[in-house]
Structure formats: structure tokens, C-alpha cells
Write a structure and sequence with these properties.
Elements: E1 2-3, H1 8-16, E2 23-24, H2 29-68
Parallel strand pairs: 1-2
Length: 69
């Protein structure tokens, strides 16, 4: 959410409506860059979890097949 309205009510309303972040105008360039960096890091961690989960599923499937034989 990007807005010039920085009141607590506006922030709460935006978050209640589903906004995942809130930036107020005028923008603080350093804050925007740090938020982007943090979001990219969180996305990277999410992708790593997906990769590990997939690998574990394959390992369980392989071990299950071995045990059934």
C-alpha cells in the first residue's frame, strides 16, 4: 500500500483489507530499498524451503519403495 495518509486508522484499514506492507509518501528511498531487499530474501528462503520439501518427498518415496520390496 502506498499512500499519503499516514494515520493509524489508514494503516489498520489497509492491513485489514489485505495489504501486506505499507509505505507512506514521501518515500524514504533507503526504507524502500531495505524493504525490497528483505522481501527478496524472504522469497529466496521460501524457494529454498520448497526445494528441500520436494527433495524430502522424493527421498521418502524412494525409501518407501525400498521398504516395500
Amino acid at each position: 500500500m502506498l499512500t499519503g495518509d499516514t494515520t493509524t486508522g489508514a494503516k489498520r484499514a489497509a492491513l485489514e483489507a489485505g495489504a501486506t506492507d505499507f509505505l507512506a509518501k514521501p518515500l524514504d528511498e533507503v526504507e524502500v530499498l531495505l524493504r525490497i531487499k528483505n522481501l527478496l530474501h524472504a522469497h529466496s528462503l521460501y524457494r529454498q524451503c520448497q526445494t528441500y520439501s520436494h527433495g524430502l518427498e522424493q527421498l521418502v518415496e524412494k525409501r518407501t519403495t525400498e521398504l516395500q520390496q
